[in-house]
């Protein structure tokens, strides 16, 4: 279903309710530059280290598109699990997993309080940016502690830049990108208003420092388009 959530006046701040869940896959593909390519890149990175029984945990797994794609490409049986705090998203995810006969565990959970234990790979695609900054910092510490010694954390985020002029230019470029994907000026403005003080991005440096402060020793960026970046952090 095509995303038309913001083609009418907004009545509330952005949330992952049924209206968003019903169009979420389309929203991601059209709103996040190179989203499909980034998903494939992360999957390829995981497959390069695939091993029987290896645990892959997806935070903010939404409709399970990422996990289903990973499931369809893995050569050995890994343990795939998705966490989400939106029942509407999980309902969609469960329907899709059943339709594809995919053995993927899904759980309604708050990632801030979830008990992370002996995780091998944790993925969070455009998820951390919706968590309040102080809680985000504490979450990364929990993730680090919950990963195995050779564990890996892969996350994608929208970022801001310290150079305010450059930041404004890149935002304008991003809005032109969205127009090219079929969104109107009105829809772009409506979503921007709905996301104000809901989506709070860090700079690239702040994301890297947050991981270092949590204990991660090796942090790299593996993809960037304007203000969208994918990071890999290893213990």
UniProtKB/TrEMBL annotation:
<comment type="similarity">
    <text>Belongs to the class I-like SAM-binding methyltransferase superfamily. Cx-SAM synthase family.</text>
</comment>
<feature type="domain" description="Methyltransferase">
    <location>
        <begin position="56"/>
        <end position="151"/>
    </location>
</feature>
<dbReference type="InterPro" id="IPR005271">
    <property type="entry name" value="CmoA"/>
</dbReference>
<protein>
    <recommendedName>
        <fullName>Carboxy-S-adenosyl-L-methionine synthase</fullName>
        <ecNumber>2.1.3.-</ecNumber>
    </recommendedName>
</protein>
<keyword id="KW-0808">Transferase</keyword>
<feature type="binding site">
    <location>
        <position position="125"/>
    </location>
    <ligand>
        <name>S-adenosyl-L-methionine</name>
    </ligand>
</feature>
<dbReference type="InterPro" id="IPR029063">
    <property type="entry name" value="SAM-dependent_MTases_sf"/>
</dbReference>
<feature type="binding site">
    <location>
        <position position="35"/>
    </location>
    <ligand>
        <name>S-adenosyl-L-methionine</name>
    </ligand>
</feature>
<comment type="function">
    <text>Catalyzes the conversion of S-adenosyl-L-methionine (SAM) to carboxy-S-adenosyl-L-methionine (Cx-SAM).</text>
</comment>
<feature type="binding site">
    <location>
        <begin position="84"/>
        <end position="85"/>
    </location>
    <ligand>
        <name>S-adenosyl-L-methionine</name>
    </ligand>
</feature>
<feature type="binding site">
    <location>
        <begin position="60"/>
        <end position="62"/>
    </location>
    <ligand>
        <name>S-adenosyl-L-methionine</name>
    </ligand>
</feature>
<feature type="binding site">
    <location>
        <position position="192"/>
    </location>
    <ligand>
        <name>S-adenosyl-L-methionine</name>
    </ligand>
</feature>
<dbReference type="InterPro" id="IPR041698">
    <property type="entry name" value="Methyltransf_25"/>
</dbReference>
<keyword id="KW-0949">S-adenosyl-L-methionine</keyword>
<dbReference type="Pfam" id="PF13649">
    <property type="entry name" value="Methyltransf_25"/>
</dbReference>
């Amino acid at each position: 279903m095509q995303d038309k959530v913001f083609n009418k006046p907004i009545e509330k701040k952005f949330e992952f309710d049924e209206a968003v869940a019903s169009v979420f896959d389309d929203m991601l593909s059209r709103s996040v530059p190179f989203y499909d390519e980034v998903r494939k890149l992360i999957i390829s990175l995981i497959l390069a280290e695939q091993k029987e029984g290896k645990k892959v945990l997806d935070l903010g797994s939404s409709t399970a598109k990422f996990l289903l794609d990973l499931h369809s490409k893995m050569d050995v049986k890994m343990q795939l699990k998705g966490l989400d705090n939106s029942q509407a998203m999980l309902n969609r995810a469960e329907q899709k997993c059943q339709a594809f006969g995919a053995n993927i565990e899904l759980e309604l959970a708050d990632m801030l309080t979830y008990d992370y234990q002996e995780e091998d790979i944790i993925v969070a695609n455009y998820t951390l940016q919706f968590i309040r900054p102080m809680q985000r910092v504490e979450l990364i510490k929990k993730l680090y502690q919950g990963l195995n010694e050779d564990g890996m954390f892969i996350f994608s985020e929208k970022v801001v830049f310290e150079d305010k002029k450059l930041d404004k230019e890149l935002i304008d470029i991003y809005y032109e990108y969205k127009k090219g994907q079929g969104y109107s000026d009105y829809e772009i403005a409506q979503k921007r208003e709905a996301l104000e003080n809901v989506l709070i991005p860090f700079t690239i440096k702040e994301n890297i420092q947050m991981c270092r402060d949590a204990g991660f020793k090796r942090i790299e960026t593996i993809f960037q388009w304007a203000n969208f970046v994918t990071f890999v952090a290893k213990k």
